[in-house]
Structure formats: C-alpha cells, structure tokens
Write a structure and sequence with these properties.
The chain is 69% helix and 4% strand. It has a 3-stranded antiparallel beta sheet with strand order 1-3-2. Strand 2 and strand 3 form a beta hairpin. The chain folds into 2 domains: 68 residues, Winged helix-like DNA-binding domain superfamily/Winged helix DNA-binding domain (Arc Repressor Mutant, subunit A), CATH 1.10.10.10; 144 residues, Four Helix Bundle (Hemerythrin (Met), subunit A), CATH 1.20.120. The protein is mainly alpha-helical. The termini are far apart. Helix 1 packs across helix 3, helix 5 runs antiparallel to helix 6 and helix 6 packs antiparallel against helix 7. One of its GO terms (molecular function) is DNA binding. It comes from Nocardia uniformis. This is GntR family transcriptional regulator.
Length: 227
C-alpha cells in the first residue's frame, strides 16, 4: 500500500510563510539577532515547526527588505554592521528624500497638509525614551517617527518612489535599533518642528535643506558609533 504524504496547500503555505516572516522581522528589528548572525534555514524550520520551503520564502522576503543578506554558498545572515554601510544608506536617503519632499510640497493637497500636522502632533506627543527601553528609542516613538517622515513624502503621489523610501527607512531603522543612544546635544524635536513648518509653508528650498541636514546628522551619529 502506497503511503501518501500530505503537503500544505498553497494558501496554507503562504500563511505560514507570512507568520515566519513577521516573527523573524520583529526579532531582527528588536535586536535579538546581532549583526552578521547566520540565519540558518534548517534551524529556523525546526524552531518554527515549518518546512524549509516556508522558511526560505520568508528569508527571501527579508532580503528584499534589506533585513537579511543572501551569502554565496553560505545561506542567509543578518546584515553586517559598519560605518561604510550607514554612509551608503545615508547618501541614498539624502539623494532621494529631499526630492520627494519637494514633489510633495508641489503636489500635496489639503488632506496631505492635515495628515502632516496629525503625524507631527503624534510624534511630538510620543515619549522618545521610556524606562523599559533604557538607552534606546521607544517602539512607540520609532513608529511615530516613521509615520511622520513618510507622511511628509506621500504628497508626491508616486508609490514606486515611496517603496524606495520604505526600503531605505527599514535599513536605517535597523542601524538605529542597534546603535542609537541618547544624544543630549541634538534637538530632534526642534528639527522635526522646523521640517513640518517649512513643508506646510510650501517652502521647498528651506524644507529640503532642513531635511538634508536632519539626515546628515543622523547618518553621522550612527556611523560615528560604528567607526
């Protein structure tokens, strides 16, 4: 008698892959994996109780987001940590984001203005640090920070360019989660306030200059800690 081995249906496999992806993404962003740590499909499959195919699908998705690297003949790993990497990310952000901000200021409507105000209000009212997070930025502030920066650029109306921002933001945020500590000499609240004011005043030159300086300071701070 031939024994039939059941396999997950395609929708079930996709659901499992989504679950593994979400769990791995959260673990990497929380710093549970150190820079350059190996992400071994066999070990992860055993840990999550799923097939290798499910794990590989999740890992490929993480590679696409910049949260994992595919190593030649060596599987997958968390991205390496280096000042050179953060300088590259910073250069890419300084090249792209001011352009998107100019486009948003030109194209953004009244709804965009309201969304920017709301996003900045949330950011300004969210504690940057909490006792449980110690020296690191709080989860709530990190999300409010992302939403504010993305909302500023959403007025551009170009989803392809916004996808590029999303990928660069994830890479930059990973650096922040690993490296960012309190910096009493930097007034991030004022930087974000001036950025909001310039954008809503429809002043593209000033807004782009403020954003470029904001990104430059962030890159320098992260690279300095890894230099």
């Amino acid at each position: 008698m031939t024994r039939t081995v059941s396999t997950p249906t395609q929708p079930a496999k996709q659901m499992l892959s989504e679950q593994v992806y979400a769990q791995l993404r959260n673990a990497i962003m929380r710093g549970e994996y150190a820079p350059s740590d190996a992400l071994k499909p066999q070990d992860l499959a055993r840990q999550h109780g799923v097939s290798l195919a499910v794990v590989r699908e999740a890992l490929v998705r993480l590679v696409g987001e910049g949260l994992a690297e595919r190593l030649t003949n060596r599987g997958f790993a968390v991205p390496a940590l280096s000042a050179h990497r953060w300088h590259q990310i910073g250069e890419a952000r300084r090249t792209i984001e001011p352009v998107l901000l100019r486009m948003s200021i030109e194209r953004g409507d009244v709804k965009w203005e309201g969304d920017v105000r709301a996003a900045h209000h949330r950011l300004a009212r969210t504690p940057v640090f909490t006792p449980q997070d110690g020296e690191y930025y709080s989860e709530e502030w990190a999300e409010a920070h992302r939403v504010f920066h993305r909302t500023l650029l959403e007025g551009c109306g170009n989803p392809v360019l916004l996808e590029t921002f999303d990928r660069l933001w994830v890479a930059s945020e990973l650096a922040r989660r690993w490296s960012a500590h309190r910096n009493p000499e930097r007034d991030g609240i004022d930087e974000h306030r001036r950025l909001e004011e310039a954008a809503l005043a429809r002043d593209p030159d000033t807004a782009a200059d403020i954003l470029t300086r904001h990104l430059t300071l962030t890159t320098a701070a992260l690279a300095e800690q890894e230099g």
